[in-house]
Specification:
2 strands, globular
């Protein structure tokens, strides 16, 4: 008896294609885990600034070379910051610059005695706001919005 399976034929009594595929996958995974002496060398970690999404953002939005450090600073922030601010630019739009200025003011004012104590989370919010404000002032709110979207995908997970 012959059965069809994704355009291939399976003959009764032979090893089913699904089993063969599973065996092949396990074999390839085993081979990939074996390192040759050349593969054992540690390589420089690839910078996230050279990831295709970041490069496309820089090129398509015409980011100037002097603003690349802002993008690099954004990459260092945890992904969660960008996810939490996902709708900020799209909701604020043309008011984004004023919104970010007010946010920075609140974060930097300090308490009633003028003592400025930021916890780690507030420091990240301040850094995020400063980066986005700089991008908004130099370009416009849509560039900050695009930067946020790109960073949601490429920024590190850690908090």
């Amino acid at each position: 008896m012959v059965e069809r399976f994704h355009g291939m034929e399976e003959v009764s009594g032979s090893t089913p294609l699904r089993s063969t595929r599973k065996i092949f996958t396990n074999l390839m995974n085993s081979l990939n885990s074996i390192q040759s002496p050349e593969e054992g060398r540690t390589e420089e970690p690839v910078s996230l600034i050279s990831s295709p999404r970041v490069v496309e953002f820089i090129e398509s939005r015409g980011i100037q070379p002097e603003d690349i450090p802002l993008v690099e600073q954004a990459i260092e922030l945890p992904r969660q910051i960008f996810i939490e601010n996902h709708n900020t630019a799209s909701l604020q739009r043309e008011r984004l610059e004023v919104y970010l200025q007010q946010r920075i003011k609140v974060l930097t004012e300090g308490d009633r005695q003028g003592v400025q104590v930021l916890n780690a989370r507030q420091a990240l919010d301040l850094q995020y706001s400063q980066i986005m404000l700089a991008m908004t002032q130099k370009y416009d709110w849509t560039v900050a919005w695009n930067l946020n979207s790109v960073m949601e995908k490429v920024a590190p997970e850690s908090f």
